[in-house]
Amino acid sequence: MRFPPPTGPLRLVVADDNPVVRAGLTALLSGREDTTVVAEAADGREAYEAALRHRPDVVLLDVRMPGVDGISALPHLVRLAPVMMLTYSHESGTVREALRLGAGGYLVHGEFDTEQLVRAVRDVCEGRPHVTPGAVRALLPPAAVPGASAHTEPELPAPAWDMSAKTLSQMQSSVGQSFRSSFQLSSREAEIMDLIASGMTNHQIAATCFISEKTVKNHINHIFAKLHTTNRSQATAKWLGVA
């Protein structure tokens, strides 16, 4: 569906059930000359109502939200504005379904900085698909990505879901390591930080990682020190790139 081109700064709706993520994205995108956030939403229903009211240039949409989730809201939202998935979810089925339902892009938290985010928003607004590496890998069969780097950004001149695995794999050009590498977390600490960002408690993290809660607490103390934060909200905001 074609939408009229913006006449000023890109007007955005941010939909995410995590208030830290919403606040961080709003602060990032409203403090610029070329983008502004006109509304926030905590679930798909609120996102639809906000899009209906404000007619934004792009909707930034999380996948997993209580009530009406992003995938359920997507077919309704794409009738009102271009939609870019901005989420932690990079399961193959989720990525494929989002793109099938009309999402113009799919960004996985931790795989972009502010300028890359703004460029992606503008690309989606102008009808150019934009997908970060985690989503690209989700679109490829395992055999197609043996040498794919975890920290590359694809350039997609045509919709990813219309391309062969070989074409997608060839598109991944190195842009250097993710900003997360600067935190110097160990692989275990990065795993635990991902679980913190997903909303898990210490007890749930311990069960998931098969370690004791005391060990989880020790890892979290090391993580907070490396991220220069003092609580989970601050650490999550930094880890997701919205602080």
UniProtKB/TrEMBL annotation:
InterPro entries: CheY-like_superfamily, NreC/VraR/RcsB-like_REC, Sig_transdc_resp-reg_C-effctor, Sig_transdc_resp-reg_receiver, Tscrpt_reg_LuxR_C, WalR-like. One of its GO terms (biological process) is phosphorelay signal transduction system. The modification 4-aspartylphosphate is found at D62. Pfam families: GerE, Response_reg. Residues 178-243 form the HTH luxR-type domain. Keywords: DNA-binding, Phosphoprotein. The keyword Ligase does not apply. CDD domains: LuxR_C_like (cd06170), REC_NarL-like (cd17535). Coiled coil: none annotated. Signal peptide: none annotated. Residues 11-124 form the Response regulatory domain. Transmembrane segments: none annotated. One of its GO terms (molecular function) is DNA binding. The keyword DNA-binding applies. This is Response regulator transcription factor.
